[in-house]
Design a protein that fits this description.
two-stranded antiparallel ribbon, 3 helices, 4 strands, alpha+beta
């Protein structure tokens, strides 16, 4: 007797049908209720969510101006020491890391 190996076995077929019935009968939320819950959560704007609170503090940062022996690379925009100049063309100065 020839056996069709592509045919789904009966025990697998029953399991698939049972699992489909279980999924259909499950109390899964419908799409509208999920969208409504997401809209309500967006309305909170982070209130009540850890890490979502607004802090009314000012950050105090001391800005140090560029020294005479420093330059700003025209490629990476980092402030470097003049000893790291690799190329200068007009007003553009490039560091050794960008030209390397």
């Amino acid at each position: 007797m020839a056996t069709d190996y592509d045919e789904v076995r009966s025990d697998v077929k029953e399991t698939q049908e049972n699992s489909l019935e279980a999924l259909q009968s499950a109390n899964a939320p419908d799409a509208r209720s999920v969208v409504q819950e997401l809209d309500e959560a967006d309305g909170l704007d982070g209130a009540g969510v850890p890490g979502g609170e607004f802090i009314a503090e000012e950050l105090i940062v001391q800005v140090i101006p560029q020294a005479d022996d420093e330059f700003t690379c025209s490629s990476c925009f980092l402030v470097r020491h003049r000893s790291q100049i690799a190329r200068q063309s007009g007003t553009d100065i490039y560091c050794t890391d960008c030209e390397g």
